[in-house]
Amino acid sequence: MPRKKATPEESEQTTPEENELAARMSNPTGDALRQFFSLDFRELDRDLTEEERNEWNAIYASYRGRSALSGIIIGVDHFVNNYGNDNVQDMYCATVIPYRVRIIIPATEMWMDDFIVPDFAFRGMVGAKIEFVITRVEREAGFAVASRREAMRNRRYYFSRHQELWTEGARTKCQVLSVGPRRCIVECHGHDLNVTQRELSYAAIADLRTFYHPGTELSCIVKSYDAEKGKLNISVKEAKPNPYDGASTRHPTGSRRQAVISGKYAGGVFCNLPDGTVCMCNYSYQYEDSDFKIGDIVILRVQRFDDEKKQMYGKILSKW
After folding, report:
1. Which CATH number, 1.10.10.2840, 2.40.50.140, 3.90.215.10, 3.30.450.20, labels domain 15-151?
2. What backbone torsions phi and psi does residue 186 show, to the nearest 5 degrees?
3. Domain limits of the chain?
4. 13 or 289: which carries more pLDDT confidence?
5. Half-sphere exposure in the Cβ direction for 9 (13 Å, CA)
6. Which of 130, 270, 292, 300 satisfies CB 3.0 to 4.6 Å to 204 for a cystine?
7. Mean pLDDT throughout 109-120?
8. 131 and 155 Cβ atoms separated by less than 8 Å
């Protein structure tokens, strides 16, 4: 039977927000929403402090209007709940507590489908600041469930519609989410990106966890953006001047300099000078590789510069 069209007078009686709520309540998952509106909020919130009431109001607003909230992950828990029916939920969840209410984000609602999640990622997100949308309110039990994926979709949509944000060379910010020894995950305008040490810093870093932590905000520049595929490419290190520029003047060939061994690779030794310049070194003939460890302070002699590769070369003369 064809559906009767609403008259103009009937259409004017409801707002777009009310129409969206009606659509959400009519779909198969609308039971939770109908349960939410059946609650006696005046009675439930009667004894709350002002801070607690403000917190719950923000949660209610996010649930009703799909607006984003933000918070810091304080832990990753194993969560089991059956919501009072046969729909048992057994999962790992990130926990955010803005003030007193526990908000959980299941691992399945943390990442977008186009992102390959490294093994270290989820449990290493404690301290990361994230955005999320409330998807379920368990008011009587005192907690809420949220989705980071939904907030990321909204951020991506906004980013794609504002060309000044993704023009090549545009400066912006990214948030560190999780850090491993050789790479870390950052979020930029709704895009989660795997960033290697080489893309983060001009200096060689043996273990990124020494310098980067979840929750750190980094400056970066946009390298490219494919709006059709939703692929964003950024550079953190290129947001800063390259310390190699002017290095031949600061450290002329033949000069001796103090440096710190930051890494070893294929027989070469990466040494960081105090100004951030990296010098790739060999050992003097009297030394063996086992005589030096990462973190040792050494004296090196500058031997040559390769402007095409932007690389300085030298030889380790002694420990300092």
Report:
1. 2.40.50.140
2. -120, 155
3. 15-151, 162-239, 247-319
4. 289
5. 0
6. 270
7. 86
8. yes
- Token digits of residue 249: 């003047």
Sign of the CA dihedral running 260, 217, 114, 69: positive
| Domain 247-319 architecture | Beta Barrel (2.40)
| Closest among 185, 54, 201, 69 to 124, alpha carbons compared | 185
pLDDT tens-place string over residues 255-296: 999 999 998 988 899 999 999 999 999 999 999 999 999 999
Distance CA 131, CA 155 (A): 9
**pLDDT (tens digit per residue) in 179-207:** 999 899 999 999 999 999 989 999 888 89
- Rounded to whole angstroms, what are the CA distances from 108 to 104, 147, 192, 199? 11, 9, 15, 28
pLDDT above 90 coverage of the chain, percent: 67
Q: What is the mean pLDDT of residues 5-20?
A: 50
Q: What is the fold of 162-239?
A: OB fold (Dihydrolipoamide Acetyltransferase, E2P) (2.40.50)
Query: CB under 8 Å to 277, separation ≥6 — which residues?
Result: 243, 244, 247, 250, 251, 312
* More confident site: 160 or 140: 160
Burial of 193 (0-12, 13-18, 19+ CB in 10 A): buried
Please calculate the CA angle 172-204-236 and round it to the nearest 5 degrees: 5
162-239 and 247-319 share one CATH topology? yes
Whole-model pTM above 0.90? Answer: no
SS (H, E, C) 244-260: CCCHHHHCCCCCEEEEE
Q: Residue 229: which of 156, 150, 169, 164 has the closest Cα?
A: 156
